[in-house]
Amino acid sequence: MQRSLKITWLGHACFKIERDNYSIIFDPYEDGSVPGLSNIREHANSVLCSHEHHDHCFTEGVTIDPVERNPFEITWIDTFHDEVKGNKRGPNRIHILNDGVFKVVHLGDLGCELTKEQEELLKDADAIMIPVGGFYTIDAVQAKELVDRIQPRVTIPMHYRGENYGYDEIGTVAEFTKLCDNVIYYSENSIVITKDTVEQTAILEYQ
Fold first, then answer.
1. Looking at residue 70, what is its pLDDT?
2. DSSP per-residue string spanning 11-55
């Protein structure tokens, strides 16, 4: 049976990663912190936050179901939330999951340029979740340039403004997709990835 990995977008920079019977939530946002988004009320086996801002670290919204073994090796790269070494918005942590089959990267609120050594650690990813809205993070052009350098198989943009949700000061996903080839629009908020999944930019529908 072919192995698979499910990625579900819960809004903003919040995602649920599921492999077999194990799940991880990234960056749950506090109730009411992101205009237009529903409150996070999820169950998972663990939760990871890229930084401590209220729209990325509401661990109270996730009920932890303990298990004995996490199938993922979790590593991280400490970066910054802005272009001035965190002086405006503080630190940011990139998380990398690897279960020996799939490598998944969540960039958090990346706001700075990465070193070549850091970019090397992000290469060969099966999926990457990348902010594209600008203002608080890298923008669409910067995100596309980074994707071109590290070449993930599936790119999932996040932290952007939709028609009825998100911050007014950040950009829309269209500003990113117009720069991309192989864009696939999904009518749901999940994608199931296997080793046969084609290279793409996946636009998940907020539910």
1. 92
2. ETTEEEEEETTEEEEE-PPPTTSSTTPPPP-EEESEEE-SS-STT
